[in-house]
């Protein structure tokens, strides 16, 4: 921590020294005050629209900066005084709103010294190189973009050195990824905005200056609102997924099953509603333990999931009970798939750890399937009851069975397949 403090204070003091050595403010006090107040007003407005990304225990602000145009008009000392006022406003605002970092005061000195020093470098580069490009078409803009890109790269290097001292950057790849993460479009936007501001200020077109600030503010605010809306949607989707997902098997839970059933209830499509259950599951828990039992449930869920298409649904509807909804299949295809699943369950045991040793557990499952067309005549929840009754029939007939029923509207056909020793 002492090394970080020393590093930041050194940057601040170098920036202060360079600003003083560079001489007085380049313009008269009246004009400087006017520019200072306009920049401060819009910079403080923009400070509420910043994208803040947490890197370790440090907050990194990403927003457009107008410091380069400011330093070109007022000089290094003018910019340094501006950064002091701007950054301490942000410091006190964050303290008041409870959004400050633990070391916000120290970071404020970095946020003053770092940008002021880098833009001073840009200041000298611009006035040294500008005469060489003055007669070249778009030479001004090429130089401006090049200097802004260069100072932005130097800013990344300064931040990397801070992250290195705080332990937030551990490897060379981390550093490369950080630099690659800087958006070239943000850099171009910053270059063009500062270039226009410099031209307008040099010619004292104040209406154009204000209009450009307002335009950038509206664009930034719109982007911030859109980003916030997207973030809220992501959070809502994540919470909804958590609410509809079974923790153990990562399949959908019963709440989501009820939701989907309500959606499918009157879609007028053929579906197969299957209720399945692991046979003698209580004996597995009693013989081994609940951890092994959980492994069996997970294995069963994975077997079911691996045999389904994207349009199908799998739900954990009870402890060891799962419900499947098959879509876009005819009745024979559903029966064939169900036989295949049952065969895979019977012939693929679970490998789990029990009392420190690898244990192989064979198990079977029973199924009840009701195939029907969703319509006003038959509620899907009634179909679920039929499928559940068919599962009970499979259990009653000796387990490891598939009992199916097809509702043809005018007649019902029922079939039971004993799966023991069954070969596909």
From TrEMBL:
<keyword id="KW-0472">Membrane</keyword>
<feature type="transmembrane region" description="Helical">
    <location>
        <begin position="6"/>
        <end position="25"/>
    </location>
</feature>
<protein>
    <submittedName>
        <fullName>GGDEF domain-containing protein</fullName>
    </submittedName>
</protein>
<feature type="transmembrane region" description="Helical">
    <location>
        <begin position="64"/>
        <end position="84"/>
    </location>
</feature>
<dbReference type="InterPro" id="IPR000160">
    <property type="entry name" value="GGDEF_dom"/>
</dbReference>
<feature type="domain" description="GGDEF">
    <location>
        <begin position="269"/>
        <end position="407"/>
    </location>
</feature>
<dbReference type="GO" id="GO:0052621">
    <property type="term" value="F:diguanylate cyclase activity"/>
</dbReference>
<dbReference type="Pfam" id="PF00990">
    <property type="entry name" value="GGDEF"/>
</dbReference>
<dbReference type="InterPro" id="IPR050469">
    <property type="entry name" value="Diguanylate_Cyclase"/>
</dbReference>
<keyword id="KW-1133">Transmembrane helix</keyword>
<feature type="transmembrane region" description="Helical">
    <location>
        <begin position="138"/>
        <end position="163"/>
    </location>
</feature>
<dbReference type="InterPro" id="IPR029787">
    <property type="entry name" value="Nucleotide_cyclase"/>
</dbReference>
<feature type="transmembrane region" description="Helical">
    <location>
        <begin position="105"/>
        <end position="126"/>
    </location>
</feature>
<dbReference type="InterPro" id="IPR043128">
    <property type="entry name" value="Rev_trsase/Diguanyl_cyclase"/>
</dbReference>
<keyword id="KW-0812">Transmembrane</keyword>
